[in-house]
Amino acid sequence: MSVTEWLKPVLSALIKIIELSADLGTITATVIAAIVFFKNGPEIKSLIKTLNNFAHRDSMSELRIKIELLASTKGTEQASSIEISSLFLEICGQIDGSPFLREELSDISSRMRNAASGRKIISEPQKRAMLSKLREMVRHLDYANFGDSVKSASEMKR
User: What DSSP state is assigned to residue 123?
Assistant: First the structure.
């Protein structure tokens, strides 16, 4: 009997022991994770809500910056009209890219997209009307999001 013939069953048994140990380790880790999740479920849920609210607030602050940039652009010349159309479409892209914003701001997004895609130059009164509506909608969402943030923070303290 050569060394390799003798070593094959030993290595095979060793591999089976290692595989069994890995499977038992996976099962143990899963059970521990389940226990931690069920024991600390409300805290984990509150943490996820807080992170979600942070992401919403970040999107809202970026949107507010674009709104102010749009407000500072005057639509009197052809070049600035192109810039306004670009900002409208950029805002629409941000709204459409966020499920939270898309759900809440789809109406104004489609109006802005239609105005920017049209052949006519966007007039200053038209821009201001959409800008005012967008500002109010963002302000409303910001207040609602702030209320959710406060509720999540109070839930985490319990």
Answer: P
Read off the pLDDT of residues 50-83 as tens digits, 9 standing for 90 and up: 888 888 888 888 999 999 998 888 766 666 788 8
Q: Tell me the C-alpha distance between 116 and 113, whole Å.
A: 5
Question: Mind giving me the DSSP string for 19-50?
Answer: HHHHHHHHHHHHHHHHHHHHHSHHHHHHHHHH
DSSP class per residue in 54-113: HHHHHHHHHHHHHHHHHHHS--SSHHHHHHHHHHHHHHHHHHHH-HHHHHHHHHHHHHHH
pTM (predicted TM-score): 0.64
Domain ranges of the chain: 1-39, 42-157
